[in-house]
Specification:
The protein is mainly alpha-helical and 637 residues long. Among the domains are: 58 residues, no CATH class; 233 residues, Tetratricopeptide repeat domain (Serine Threonine Protein Phosphatase 5, Tetratricopeptide repeat), CATH 1.25.40.10; 121 residues, Serine Threonine Protein Phosphatase 5, Tetratricopeptide repeat. 73% of the residues lie in helices and 1% in strands. A 3-stranded antiparallel sheet has the order 1-2-3, with no helix packed on it. The protein starts with a strand and ends in a 5-residue tail after the last helix.
Amino acid sequence: MKDLGPTRDRCEVLCQACNAANPSDHEYCVRCHQRLMVISGGWDEEDLIAFEATGEEQLSFDEHLLERISILEEVVKRTTGSVRQIFGGLKRLEQKLLVNHTGITSLREVLASKGTVGREEWGERWEAQLEDQLLGLERRERFSRDRGAILALFSGRHRRRFQKLLEEAEFALAACDVERAMGALEVAFALDPGNHPLALLIGETWFNEGDAARARGFFEAVLAAKPRHYEGLVYSGVLAYELGETARATERLEAAVGWYPDAFLPHFSLGAVHASAGCLAPAVASLSRACELEALPQANYLLGCCLYQLGHTTQAIRRLEAAVATDPGFEDAFHVLGFACLDRAWNRKAHDAFRRALRLAPSRLRFEELHQLLESPGTAPAKAPVASSPATPAAHNDTARWLARARNALAGGRTRNALSCCRQALAREPENPELLVSYAMVCLELERPREIQAVVSKVLDLDTGERLRTTACTTLIEALRSEGDHREGIRVGRRLLAESTSNFTRTLANYELAWSLAELGEDLDEALACARGALDTAPDELRRLPLAALGWVHYKRREFEQAVECLSRSTELLPSPANLTRLGMALLASGERDEARDVLRQARALDVRIAPLRDRVVECLKDSTRLLQTAANKPRT
């Protein structure tokens, strides 16, 4: 508070909250009832004479400190009260969350016990919903952050209509209805085509949704209003590249580099575009600058690839090693690193790089290979699953259609769609053993091993033939091995071998045992015996499997000549990327470096999981999280 000035008859005090005048002997304000702050002591005769003579208040340094301390005490007191209230609210919220979580967990247990919803399906849907909610929250926060700027820059004629559309978009985003929100924002943009913050918001949203064509027009509108806009230049360059307009992409990204020479993303994007077009020298220059600004594994990988193609092998190795040091799961980088080390005759480092790449993609039978096990030798594939209980022909046809859709979705890389199609088929024939085994195969292909055990247990409980039981157990062992649970896989394999009555079952049981024992590495003699036993009983259509297992066991035993022989025979029957990689590693270990390089290049060419450089560039450029993070760190223009 502040004294209004002393008088000989009366001293009034100004309230620090509402500025009301109060008698000096009052403790609380007469108007707002706030506690009055005392900032100085009483007035004596000398003070009054000095005040009347100079017209100024003479305050000592001690009185000034007392005033400041009093203010701070009041602030701390109020802050303490607020913190106490917040802490109490958080504690109550924590208790409510615990109660809700317990209720939801109980509901999941009840539904799982009744067979209504499985644990894995529950978890998958929970994660999907959580991802959607988090994405919706991010969109709402972005909209709230930019709404003030959008309204401030409105220059149209229908401001009230514009505000209502923004409110409609906000409500739609709160309900996670992106289509309705974008519809409202696009109508609002039509009312104010020069509103570049609104255009940027719509363009970024469509970019993240994967609609490049719709996003591009809004980024062009941003650049029409602000030709030097950072996000507008970068986004439009990336989209032009994605739409196949390399020259336009280069022009936009070069402009971004010119205006923002210290930003990572323009240099990286420009270098990636040059690399994809085969312009390696300018690509190296741009990517080197990008790595100086931010050494991301993608940037080091692309730079390493360009240096390797230019013949600068040592520099390429250095960059690729930096990429895998930052991202130990970067399988492509390990492959290129292995080839670069081969060119330098660093056989041991090359071998280690290919071994680590192989470890990132553990060997397992693919969906098509497992599906062939369901077919009897010499017969055509079944047109529809064989039902274990009576069903109508329409149900059979419907089930077969859904299963065919699942296979087509797998072939097209639409993994979630494949799983959904299999579940639709199972909903029509839940006790169909062949369909259950196919569902387990899809789960293995999609790396969902936890669901497989329950499905296989259900198949084994049904009255099925030996071929179906063997294929189901094989799928389970493959899933266990991909998870690193070799001991459980060995237990299932030994049980399958003990119950076998045909060469088909004995071959697959010994094959899986040999492979799991070799990966475990504790009893390679037993692994060798199992591999030889599988080869002795293998039908012609399965012979490549025990040959591959036998070759890998020999490799583990450091018997490289026998490994090369067996793996060569296996790849002659049916070449696969994994077996060709193992053959290349065996050749490399036996000193055949040139042959190893040829075989490994053939393995890389066959592996559909390894994207070519252009596709890898697109993947890096479409990393929207990195793009948004980098753009957010750059001041808007």
